[in-house]
Amino acid sequence: MNSQTGCWAVSALLSLLLAPLLPGIINRVKAFFAGRRGPSFFQLYYDIAKLLKKGCVYSSTATPILRLAPAAGLAALLAGVLLMPFGMNSSPFAFTGDILLFIYLLGFSRISGVLAALDTGSSFEGMGASREMQFSALAEGAFLAVTGFLVILTGKFSLTETLNGFTFGAWSYSGTAMLLIAAAFFLVMLAESCRVPFDDPETHLELTMIHEAMILDYGGPDLALILYGASLKLWLLASFFVLLILPCGMTSTWLNTAIYFVSVGFTAVMIGVVESVMARFRFLKVPQFINAATALAVLAIIFMIVFGEVA
Amino acid sequence: MINVLLFSIFIFAGSGFAALLCNRHGNPQLPAWIGRTGALAGAFSGMLSVVMRFLPDTVPASSDLYGIYLNFDNLSAFFLLPVLLVGGAAAIHSPAYLKGHDHGKSGNYWFFFNMTLASMTLVTLVRTPLTFLLAWELMGTMSFALVAFEYRSKLTRQAAWIYLLACEAGALFLIGFFVFAGREISPAILFALLLIGFGLKAGLPFLHIWLPEAHPAAPAPVSAVMSAAMIKLGLYGVLRFHHMINIPDNIIGWTLLFCGLAGALFGIIAATAQSNLKRLLAYSSIENIGIICIGLGLGFLGINAGNSMMAAAGFCGALLHLLNHMLLKGSLFMLAGTVYKATGTLNMDRMGGLMKRMPRTGWLFAFSGISISGIPPFNGFLGEFLIYAAAYYGIISGTGTPVFFSSLLTMITLALVGGIAAGAFSKAIGGIFLGEPRTREAADASQAPLSMDLPPFIFTLLSLAMIFLAGNVCAYLIPVITDALGVRPCHLGVPVAELQELLYKLSIFALIVTGFFVLLQFLRSLLMRNREVTVRGTWDCGYAAPDARMEYTATAFSQPLSDFLHRLTGWRKEVLPPRDFFPKEAGIRITTADPAAKRFWVPVFHAFGTAAVKVRILQSGLLHLYILIMVTALILMLFWGYFFCGGQSESIQKTPAATKTVEVKK
């Protein structure tokens, strides 16, 4: 138990440090597909370091909300970090129902961003905020459907106990359901972290962006907080994805942890591949796609009930 | 205890009449002063007895007042709490709101306001069908007068008319229920009567149409009382009187659950589409009543299945959410009134930038708005959390059973509702308070008097306290649930203690989030020391002269979702394009007609109207015809009495026997 907690703490700290690496990996993969060399893996670290040294420019329209939102959003994500069983080690903060707290903390971080975007009165930021709210409302339903699946699979209701609560057996007796749920959550992850095909963080037109459009008026340390927060959110979602797929199998906690970190990196590669081979959807198509994720999750639940052995 | 309550009813009614009498005499301040003092004094003395009720070692108080049987148990006390708390707060908020609205006749307002409070208090106390119906009807008519307070506007008159219809229809169903309860009538029909009768007040889906009409029309403090206290009395009625019929728990559970799911989802989707602030809040009330019903439904299902964890989580979640909704929605409606007084409109598209002009109101609204969308560190999340927990206990209780499936459905629906609610309220906060003002009225708005912001401030403090005390509050909910369940065996002590643990964990996490926030903000301010901070115009992607008209409006913000779900929102866009070579005017009009009203109620009432016109032939003005009709009716009644009375006499004998057995049970 003690070594588990220690292992969790180390992995959590490592995750906090490594989170900005994920966008770097994704961008390198995309560059590889495009036949370019691409920016450094550590580009986001450089960006954040540079931004932290700068001053700020605020909109004259804005109220203190614009200044408070980045810290509030990141604080919610950091609280979420405490619940995630990093490296397949039990989080010492886990309690029944914390999975809800986790999902809703992501919601808190989102709504603080949305309010800040509306605070500037910019039409582009309003547009981004509006789309973010629409898509995430639907994505939340899909996320809870995935949660429902996990509850059925493990009979537990905390992140630690659900994500670590099943063995390799789950894949053997209900492999189809596991595959479907993995697909469903992959879509949720892409939607929540604003990646292609839902949002393109690298488009050159503000009209077509969601997340990037919302932070147009930020600069300096505030932008650094937001960029770090976005990468941390991606890391959290990628961790959820990895733990959803991989049962807590090895006997050695350190080996588990190592597998976890490699898998998170591999997830980033997967996201990069998806972004390279796909274009962003039309905005009108996006809600249908998120609903498809919900449908997949529900289908997985049905498969689980009909064919699987349930805990 | 009950004497204290009778005393506060007396103060309410007495000060109401006194205010009305003072209306005639010169000083317009006097009735307002009498009315407000009376409402506050009554609310305060009532609160004392509510608090005493929840102290340990108190026995249910009952009294026989001139043959009227009064009883004050924990269920009554729980539902009396919103009435008194929001009633008192609205009384503080009212005078500033009424300034310029009451045409020097504030006595009228205070009479009806205090009488509404008195009748609501009475509703929670009386038990016998006849007195209950009288109190209920008094509540309906008095609040009708309040809705119709600004009767000079045609829209208000129409809204008040719809409200009165809903009240009377509800009362009709309730009369049916009380008349037939205890007779040989299928319990299903009785339960339907009960649910429709009280559901019309509570705003269950499909029966909700009066809420989005009456709330915008009524003065803001009245909307606050109606939304935060009165509609909940509908649920009180269901919990109180379902004992009178012999109906299995699972039927109650299923019905409440599905009404709740439909209401929550429909309410919040419709709320998102509104551009009128108080309509948005009214639909959000429908959503929250839905969430409360989901909790109650899961609770009843848990009782039925013998799953005490599920029952405890469902009931505690529902009641906790009821308290949170009271605090937040009471506050939001009063703030909406403040905004209305400052800008003269309720259309969110014509506001904007009010945060800078009225920061107190803005921050209070932002807090309540975020909290009511069920966002974690705040109190709106706690009740929903317990209801999710109830769904979890339902899921693990057994795979493949109906409870399992509905719990799963609850989980997904609640998630959707939460997500959409966040959208609806960020729309409201953003549209009203953020950005640049879109009209001159909004630009000229200024800080409201302190008395308008004080009640929401108190409610906000209570909400913050609720984050940390929710666990303790849960312990006090046990006797309330026991009273609601009556004779059913339920052992909620241990499960509630377990739920308390979870709520304490949530409180700790609220502290953790706050801690991280303070830390980050501190680091940020360290970094920003001696840095250059510039304030410039919003960067609108290189556009040099951004204008408030370019901003995203509240309607634009919610357009994707309301358009995507236009069947539920009734969202319709009419574009008047510019015509000819020299176009004079162009425009766009967006309407959100309530689908239930448009597709069902309007045609139904139309049909009634047409039928009524046909019947008008009878009203010919010929005396002979009238006499003929009366004689025919008399003869028909004679026949009816002669042929069908055989069954009647038996049932007359039966009724006292039935009441006797009930008394024996007590």
Overview of this protein structure:
The complex is a heterodimer of chains A (311) and B (666). Chain A is mainly α and 311 residues long. Chain A is built from 13 helices and one strand. Chain A has helices spanning 2-18, 21-34, 43-52, 64-81, 98-119, 123-154, 159-163, 169-173, 175-192, 211-214, 220-245, 253-277, 286-307; one strand spanning 56-59. In chain A, helix 3 runs antiparallel to helix 11 and helix 9 runs antiparallel to helix 13 (286-307). Chain A is globular and about 60 Å long. With 666 residues, chain B is mainly α. Among the domains of chain B are: 248-525; 559-593, no CATH class. Chain B has helices spanning 2-22, 29-54, 74-98, 106-125, 129-147, 154-180, 187-202, 210-217, 220-241, 249-273, 277-305, 308-343, 354-357, 359-372, 380-397, 402-433, 440-443, 450-485, 493-528, 554-564, 566-569, 595-615, 623-665, and strands at 61-65, 68-72, 533-536, 571-576, 587-592. In chain B, the strands form two sheets. Chain B has a two-stranded antiparallel ribbon. A two-stranded antiparallel ribbon of chain B has the order 4-5. In chain B, helix 2 (29-54) packs parallel to helix 4, helix 6 (154-180) packs antiparallel against helix 7 (187-202) and helix 9 (220-241) packs parallel to helix 11 (277-305). Mean pLDDT of chain B is 88; it is low at 647-666. Chains A and B meet through strand 1, helix 4, helix 5, helix 6 and helix 11 of A and helix 14, helix 15, helix 16, helix 19 and strand 3 of B. Strand 1 (56-59) of chain A pairs parallel with strand 3 (533-536) of chain B.
